[in-house]
Design brief:
Layout lengths: L2 H18 L8 E7 L2 E6 L2 E7 H13 L7 H5 L6 H8 L4 H11 L4 H13 L1 H5 L7 E3 L2 E5 L2
Antiparallel strand pairs: 1-2, 2-3, 3-5, 4-5
Length: about 150
């Protein structure tokens, strides 16, 4: 059994334990997609993403980097010394994430690492990883996110 397969079995059990808490009508779990970056499972018509802490941090980092333009002007200004008007103009360009990320990196106010850490502290990883309810549920060494 490979490492990925071994982790999948443990992740599946973590989801089973979480879903069966207080429920006598437990639905079966089907593995949908497994990579070294996480696992997706179906149960009762719902899709769940199950990640280790390291996988969740890597994934949320990518999501935030890819969505800088969606943050409020006020939040961006905490990390990039640019005006509200400049941010509005940048958001209208064809590459707003690249430009805003560069402004944040070069702004001298903490860079993207601090931007990402602050975004996670403000909203939690679940906000970025669970489009369904924005929640992160912990089960053993895993974090579970409902996707639909």
């Amino acid at each position: 059994m490979s490492t990925v397969e071994g982790k999948t079995l443990t992740k599946k059990k973590a989801l089973k334990d979480l879903l069966s808490e207080g429920s006598e009508n437990f639905m079966s779990i089907t593995s949908v997609h497994t990579t070294t970056h996480g696992s997706t499972f179906l149960s009762g018509g719902c899709e769940y993403l199950i990640l280790t802490d390291k996988e969740a941090n890597a994934r949320v980092d990518c999501i935030i980097r890819d969505s800088v333009e969606n943050f409020s002007t006020e939040f961006i200004q905490r990390f990039a010394p640019i005006s509200e008007e400049d941010i509005r103009v940048i958001k209208e360009t064809s590459r707003p994430n690249c430009i805003l990320t560069e402004c944040i990196e070069e702004g001298g106010l903490g860079g993207m690492c601090k931007f990402i850490d602050s975004a996670i502290q403000t909203d939690g990883r679940g906000h970025f990883l669970s489009p369904y309810d924005g929640e992160e549920k912990e089960a053993g060494n895993y974090f579970i996110y409902k996707m639909n």
